[in-house]
Structures are given as C-alpha cells and as structure tokens.
C-alpha cells in the first residue's frame, strides 16, 4: 500500500501542527505528558512440550442430554400449553432408580403430589416455569426447576418441541445460588468451597447435538460472604448429571 504512505505522513504532520498551535495558545495547561514506560509484552511459555497428551478425560462429564418425554403431548405444538406438573411427574416415573423408595431423591415424589389441585402449594417443589427461545428456532422453549428432596439440590431442565414431541435438552442437578437466562444462554450459580467465591456454569444450544451443552465454568470472587461446599451431582439418568 505505498500510495497511501504520503497521505498518512501529511495527516500526521497536520496533527502535530495542530497540537503545537494548541499548546502555544494555552501555555502548559493541558499539554501532553508521558504516562511512563510501557510494560514489555511477553509471549506465553509452553511448559513440558514433550509431555505425552492424555488420550481420555480424567472424569466423565455429560455435555449434552436429550430425552423424549413419554406420556406428555404438546397441544398444537405450543409448549406453553404443556402442564409443568405432568412434565416433572413423567420424569419421576421414567427414572425409578433416582426417585423410587431407595433413590437419592425419593422424597421428591411425595412433595410433587402437593402440586396437584387441592395440595399444599407451599410444599410443592416445582418452581415457576419460564418460556423463552433458547434454541434459536423462533419458538418458546420451557425451562423448569424443582427441588430434589431430601437433598439441598435443585433440578434444572430445559424442554423443546420437535413435531408434537416434548424433548428434554438439558438436565442438570446442583446445589444452586441462582439461575439466570441471558439471551439464549442459561447460567447456573453454585456455592464454592471457598468463602467469597462461587461457580458459574453456562449452558448454550448446540445445533449439531440438538441439546443445551456445557460451554463455560467460571470460578469467581463475589465478596466475603460464606458459601457452602459444592459437591458433584448424582446422575438423574444415564444421559444426565
């Protein structure tokens, strides 16, 4: 680009001249001052270049979960017409190893009965449902949360519609401080084992796997308040953690 060099030089000279005039008119007030030496950039140093790479992950981690919900229809393909209570009850029925008498979350079944008409609503473990497009297809999806008794964990589930089928595209259980929807991402906040810190896990839609996948896990300082210990979540099914 040699032809542009004279134009850039002339522009630079004009800028210097303008600064000189300004400095002369205003004296020393507002003059340019050095900010001190610039820190030298250092490129990353690769450690142990001869280290043999691992061939498998240290711990299994399910990044995508998909499961068609049996026994629940989607009237007119509109997920807003689906009864969230029936959706959770379908999961309880489909996974007796987790919700049966000897399951980790066995007390959830009795609590879910309180979500039906005539039940004690303050004992219902189902949280308020949210409808938002998380898959990017222009249609609302369903985000559900329900407490997992007798533990202190909360189940987070996301469902979408394929044809007339209700499909679960995210299943995660954890001890939660909060859950957020940011655009088409779902963010879970969980307590860390260090006071003043928390974990934030982000899930986003993957069109190839057709599921919400784990995309980021952050360990953040949020203040000096106490936080409990975060423990791995027992699997709710072979395809969910």
TrEMBL record:
Q: Where is the composition biased (Polar residues)?
A: 232-241
Q: What is this protein called?
A: Lipoprotein
Superkingdom field: Bacteria
Q: Tell me the leader sequence span.
A: 1-25
Q: Tell me which UniProt keywords the record has, alphabetically.
A: Signal
Taxonomically, what lineage is the organism? Bacteria, Bacillati, Actinomycetota, Actinomycetes, Kitasatosporales
Tell me the organism. Streptomyces eurythermus
Residues annotated as region Disordered? Answer: 28-54, 221-241
């Amino acid at each position: 680009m040699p032809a542009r060099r004279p134009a850039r030089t002339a522009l630079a000279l004009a800028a210097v001249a303008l600064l000189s005039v300004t400095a002369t008119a205003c004296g020393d007030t507002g003059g340019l001052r050095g900010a001190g030496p610039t820190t030298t950039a250092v490129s990353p140093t690769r450690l142990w270049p001869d280290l043999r790479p691992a061939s498998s992950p240290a711990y299994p981690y399910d990044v995508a979960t998909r499961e068609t919900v049996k026994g629940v229809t989607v009237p007119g393909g509109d997920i807003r017409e689906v009864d969230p209570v029936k959706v959770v009850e379908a999961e309880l029925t489909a996974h007796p190893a987790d919700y049966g008498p000897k399951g980790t979350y066995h007390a959830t079944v009795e609590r879910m009965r309180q979500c039906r008409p005539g039940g004690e609503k303050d004992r219902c473990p189902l949280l308020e449902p949210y409808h938002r497009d998380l898959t990017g297809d222009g249609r609302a999806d369903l985000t559900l949360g329900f407490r997992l008794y007798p533990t202190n964990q909360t189940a987070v589930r996301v469902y979408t519609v394929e044809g007339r089928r209700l499909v679960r595209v995210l299943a995660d259980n954890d001890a939660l401080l909060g859950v957020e929807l940011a655009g088409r991402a779902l963010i879970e906040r969980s307590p860390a084992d260090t006071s003043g810190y928390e974990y934030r896990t982000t899930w986003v839609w993957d069109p190839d796997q057709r599921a919400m996948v784990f995309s980021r896990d952050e360990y953040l300082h949020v203040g000096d308040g106490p936080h409990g210990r975060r423990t791995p979540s027992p699997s709710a099914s072979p395809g969910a953690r």
